[in-house]
């Protein structure tokens, strides 16, 4: 059984979301969607620049 996509929060108790993004990109080659309540432009751009295919602001609305 494999995975098709990864959806992850930026802030997790045991791992930084950006570290996970890097790990997935290097070892799994899967698309990653990051999400967080942090809507700062620098945080969003960091996610996208590090390979996230999208960044969702929480709470996620159906329009997103």
From TrEMBL:
Domain of life: Eukaryota
Entries under Pfam families matching the protein: Response_reg
Record-level GO BP terms: cytokinin-activated signaling pathway; phosphorelay signal transduction system
Keywords attached to this entry: Phosphoprotein, Transcription, Transcription regulation, Two-component regulatory system
Chain positions found as 4-aspartylphosphate: 9
PROSITE patterns, A to Z: RESPONSE_REGULATORY (PS50110)
Response regulatory domain mapped to chain residues: 1-64
Protein name as catalogued: Response regulatory domain-containing protein
Source species of the chain: Carya illinoinensis
Upper classification of the organism: Eukaryota, Viridiplantae, Streptophyta, Embryophyta, Tracheophyta
């Amino acid at each position: 059984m494999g995975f098709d996509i990864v959806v992850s929060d930026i802030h997790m108790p045991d791992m930084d979301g950006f570290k996970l993004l890097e790990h997935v990109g290097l070892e799994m080659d899967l698309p990653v969607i990051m999400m967080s309540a942090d809507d700062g432009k620098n945080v969003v751009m960091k996610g996208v620049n590090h390979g996230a295919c999208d960044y969702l602001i929480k709470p996620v609305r159906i329009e997103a």
